[in-house]
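REQUEST ID: PR-0412
SUBMITTED BY: lab tech R.K.
PRIORITY: routine
TASK: structure prediction, single protein chain
INPUT:
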Amino acid sequence: MLNKLLCALVLGLSVAVSGASAQDAVPAPAGPIAPTTAYTPSNPAAPTAPAKVAGRITASRVRGSVSATDPSGVTKVLKDNDALTEKYTVTTSSGSSVVLVFSNGATVDIGANSVLNIEQFQQDPFGEQINVGKLTKEPSASSQTKLNLTRGELVGKVVHLNIDQGSAFTVQTPVGAAGIRGTTFQIIFTPTSNGQGTFTIATLDGTVVFSSTISLPVAVPAGKQVVLVNITIPTSTATTGTGGTNTGTGTGTGTGTGTGGGTGTGTGTGTGTGTGTGTPALTFAPVTDISTSEAAAIQTQVNTIAAVTAVTTFLSTPATTGTTGTTGTTTTTTTTSTTPSNTTTAPPTTTSGAGSGPN
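STATUS: complete
OUTPUT:
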């Protein structure tokens, strides 16, 4: 009997332990377990380079009668400190001149009886105020300048350009174009009434590359010049001729009785000649030395440029007036301790207002 009771007790304990184990087990989830996905932050977009903006130009040392025509065709008398941009055309009369200072560090002194179109002047924005006379290289990352000298004379001084970043400075004339690469130079084009003209490009410092429809590209280094006299710009490139014509005549005789007629045949030949014009083979324009007197004359204009740029500055952005700021207020906050021994008051906190507005 005792054995039966012991067996029943052991069996009960086994059932109780099995039940507890079954309750403690974690049930298996239904379906497959989703894989763990690690969070990877997305890479921020690369900053976009700022777009080029229209460069600024200041007129200085205006002498005589000088006018400026804007892109819409409106013409005004140009005065000292007048602002210009690309697409303006500047015209000087006899005995007149003007110095144009560009915000990329370039300067041109336009002589009398000249017409200069500022076809393009774009540059990357720059973030500081500049004094043009102190610049040795352009202040922005790059710039694009294209001038068109229809007639007249200019002396230019261009600081070092970031050619590797795409900068370019070109002066176009009816004869050809001059590529400027950080240089002091002179260009003169004087047209004549017979469709010809005289062209001169001289380099005082640096190098200018001259190219045209009548010459292969040629480098003009410091102390050198290219002078073309009575040059005619080709107006056609085709070679054509016209052939001559001639009508031949013939005679004939005939015999007969009564009423008779004669017939005859004849032949004729003709020859003709034709003439045509064609483009001659291109050669290099002759490069010669600048004379001492010519170099001195250019240097005089360069000195004028230096005097002007020494007092010419450009801001990073056009100056505007800021708005008035809000007056600050003072707020006092008191914090009281509730400890039995004492009461502590915090010092007052002051909040100042700030003005806001564009600089």
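NOTES: Residues 5-11, 13-26, 236-248, 317-359 have pLDDT under 50 and may be disordered.
REVIEWED BY: pending
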